[in-house]
């Protein structure tokens, strides 16, 4: 696992957000620019968060008296960030005004701590945070953790985490992905991000799962022993009772599944395999199977699937593992 302290990715996302937001304020975007903006927003929850923060701060301008705005307009300008990938010449004076107005800072005031964490194939890691909250990070997982005086936020780029969160009524704990977020005050819950699907299960406490774009967000509350999922195609599914112990068995090196689609099982198992796994027959992905696999020897676990499902498993040179119907 690699863990990097600092705020490089966090600061870069901020700078790009300022660039994009300023370009939007300058006038209508071309179809090409709009596509670039949409792609940038979709590429990371960090980008979405900072862009939304700018929108909220901009709205605050309407609440200030005219005379105060005039005084603030004379404040020292914020230095323009240098970003090689963007060549616009936006008007930063307005955004500088947003940043300094009346003590309302665009970004959270006070000390900030951040970490970038990435686990390798078949690697699990425990990350203990400054407030004694603990993140168990599954294999092939990438997260960015940002702590400010106002909130604790984990950006789950890919993979799976099990969070044991210490209660702090003044600083909510939020796990965010590209399309959804989970907010808690004190609980233990599991979040798994696979392709365009997000699964959340609660072991202790309560969480609120919100999904979809901020202008049309859906939300559900989950309690102990409950789970829900979100997918881009189907939206937010209903809250259901779940075997949370089975869903979190990966922390002990096991993969437990009960009547689960083969495609989801293989996607979880692939985090422990050096070679890619591909399903030859797309319909096989929906085949329901049940069982328990040990992650200590993931290749053997993969081959065991042939004993519990009507499939054959081949290792093809240059293609990795291929699953076909038997």
From TrEMBL:
Keyword terms of this UniProt record: Membrane, Transmembrane, Transmembrane helix
Pfam families registered for this protein in UniProt: DUF4880, FecR
Protein name per the record: Iron dicitrate transporter FecR
Gene3D superfamilies linked: 2.60.120.1440, 3.55.50.30
Domain FecR N-terminal: 16-55
All copies of domain FecR protein, residue ranges: 117-208
GO molecular function, a single term: sigma factor antagonist activity
Transmembrane segments: 90-107
UniProt cross-references to InterPro entries, sorted A to Z: FecR, FecR_N, Ferrdict_sens_TM
Organism in which the protein naturally occurs: Alcaligenes pakistanensis
